[in-house]
Structures are given as structure tokens and as C-alpha cells.
Amino acid sequence: MADGPQAAPVPEAPAVPAAVRPAGAAGSVTVREYGTRYLRISVRYHGDARFSWLRVPGPAHDRPQTAPPPAAGAALRRVDAAFADAASGAGAGAGSGAGRGARLALGERAAASESGERGGVVYRVPGAVSVARLLPSGDDTAYRLSVWALADLGRTLRQLHDVPWEFAEPVPPHHGVGRLLAWISGTAPDGDGARLRALAHDRLGARLWTRLTDWAVAAQEPPGRGGAVLLHGAPSTGWLVPSPAGDHSVLLTGEEVTGGDPALDLGWVLGELHELRSAAARGLGAAGQGPPVDYPAAAQALLAGYLREEDAAAAVEALPAGTARAATLRLAVHMRDFASFVGWHEDLRRYADLLAETLDADGAPTLRW
Q1: Which residues contact residue 105 at a Cβ distance below 8 angstroms, ignoring those fewer than 6 apart?
Q2: Which residues, other chains included, contact 194 with Cβ-Cβ below 8 Å and sequence gap of 6+?
Q3: CB atoms closer than 10 angstroms to residue 291
Q4: Do residues 72 and 257 touch, judged by C-beta distance below 8 A?
Q5: pLDDT of amino acid 296
Q6: 3-state class (DSSP) for residue 278
Q7: 7 close to 303: Cβ distance less than 8 angstroms
Q8: I need a surface site. Which of 6, 127, 230, 267 has the fewest CB within 10 A?
Q9: Sheet strands (E) in the chain
């Protein structure tokens, strides 16, 4: 395995496997429901390749679901329109990467008839299944579709990061880092989260616990040279939805939008892929029990989309400074969220060891693809 990410060629988009296409139904029908104590997600099919993803706060959700500030929302729409225009002008469809990125599906406040008393945000998208489910499915075509979508995601993140946060509105907090800081400080009211905190503090030791704290605090501070840019805030395979037609992918966007260092967005996805790769290698969770997955190829596709052609040869050196640290924070946030919003699992002991190893190496393993 190479020591750094390589800008590999992006594969052509394959035809979508039949398993990804929902059976036809008259009217609207719920095709998937899942979630945690933090958030519940319902996916409905409305016919003609139209789907809605409804995200409703769970009992442990601790903040309102808010839309991006108006000026930031307008900037997001401009980025999305640019991708739509470029794809249309280039005739880009399945099998063509020219001018293509993941389209931005901006959430809207759900009607009471859709979400009930707890409210919620609904996204209108052309697919029922995210890359989080397709990537490890064991289906070769679903895997290739996922890799193609991750390249799209890389392009979209790069375009977002070219937009400086020069809006009148203040920068919203980064919610993932905020949850991590509350957990580190012991102010988060969570039972199993507190149990994990004690375990992680013991496994990391004082030196690495301090390092984790310092990195999280720094991530919430305004960026230095270059200033803040527009961030998705929580990009992940679970927010990335390929179209059943195989012609484009969509990134659910809105609730987490903020401004800051571009390393936070890119590192968030690389941290997720690093976690999945490490879990598979150690036999942890669903990743450890499923079929083999070429996670390096998935990460390389993301980076091939993100890096500009002139930066491809530089690989790691061309990534935003702090990407490895951000990826490590993503690993810590997901571990914390699982304990707090799903519950205790003995695998968390080994995840704490993985976090310690990654921190001890200054996050470097998250960039070795």
C-alpha cells in the first residue's frame, strides 16, 4: 500500500443493480426506516424515481434543525447550479466525469403531515439508498457506483471550499466537534457516553487525551491564513445518495453547514473511510463481518475528485493542512455518538485503542491510502 493518497483514474458509472431500485408502487410508500436516539430517518418513494428523505430529531437530539444562513444558502445554490450547467453543457452522464460533482439537495422544513410533532427536515432526492449501505454490500456494481459517487463528492467539496465565508452572518458552530467537546469535558448528559469517556481516558492516557482535547478546541477556532470557507459540515457516505439511473449523485446538505477550515470536511470523509477499513481489518462491527471491501480505492476516488490536476502528483502535500487531525476527530466523534445514541458495545474498547493509535501517530494512518 502506498504511503499517501494517489489520484487514481475515476471509474465510469456502472448501471445500478436491481436491488437498489425500489419495486413500483401506487402513490407514496415508505421503503426504509432507521435511526438512533439522536435522529430518525424515513425514506419514501413517490414514483418516477422521486424519493424523500425525512430526518426527524430523536429524544437525545439537543439542538434545533436549522437551515443555513441565507447568504450561505444562496452560495450553496450557486455551486449546485454550476454543476448542473457544466454537466448539461458537457453532456455529462453515466460514464463521464467531466464537469460533474454531487448535486446539493438542500433540506426544507417538513410539513406536520410528514413529520408529526417533532418537526424534521425533508430532502428530495432521486435515490433510496446511500453509499453507506452500497459500499460494503458485496455487490460489485454497487461498489463501483459508490466509488464513482465518492469522486463526485470530492469535486463538490472542492467547489464549496473555493467559496470564502464572507457573509454578513456569523459562522455557525461545527456541531460534530461541539458534541465531541461536550463529551470530553463531561458536560454531555449521556449514560453510556460517560462510560466510554472513562474508558477512553484510561486507554488514551493523559498525553493523548490532552492531544485530542487540543485538536478539538483548535477545530472550533477561526482558521488562520486563508480564512474560513464554506463547509458542508458533516459530509459522509450516509449523506451521499446515487441516482438509481446511474447518471449523478446527490449530497444531502443544510443542517450542518458552517464555515471553517476545509480540512474539516475532507477529513470527515477520510476519517469515516479509515474507520471502516480499520474495523474490517480487526473484525469489528458490521464492517468486520461483511465481505471484503477495497477501501483504498474508495478513498483514492474521493481524493482524485478533490485534488486539482496540478496537485495530483503532490498527493498528501496538496491536501489542506490539518486533514489528518480532522479525520482523527471524526473517528472520535463517531465512537462517542455510537455510545451516546445507540448504546454500549464491547467493540468500543477496541475502537478506543484504534483512536489511541491514530492519535499517537498524529493522524497519519488516515492519509495512507
Answers
A1: 123, 124, 125, 241, 250, 251, 252, 253
A2: 186, 188
A3: 10
A4: yes
A5: 97
A6: helix
A7: yes
A8: 6
A9: 29-35, 39-45, 51-57, 103-106, 108-109, 121-125, 229-231, 240-242, 249-253, 258-260
Q: Is 96 helix (H, G, I), strand (E, B) or coil?
A: coil
Contact 218, 112 (CB under 8 A): no
Sequence letter at residue 237 = T
Q: Report yes or no: 204 and 212 within 8 Å, Cβ to Cβ.
A: yes
User: Which pLDDT does position 156 carry in this prediction?
Assistant: 98
Predicted TM-score (pTM) above 0.85: yes
Contact 95, 76 (CB under 8 A): no
Q: What is the mean pLDDT of residues 191-200?
A: 95
Q: With the C-alpha atoms ordered 248, 107, 174, 40, is the resulting torsion angle positive or negative?
A: negative
Q: How far apart (Å, rounded) are the C-alpha atoms in residues 142 and 138?
A: 8
Using CB atoms within 10 Å of the CB of residue 98, give its burial: 0 to 12 exposed, 13 to 18 middle, 19+ buried: exposed
Rounded Cα distance, 201 and 209, in Å: 6
Consecutive H or E run containing 287:
helix 285-289
Helix (H) or strand (E) holding 362: none
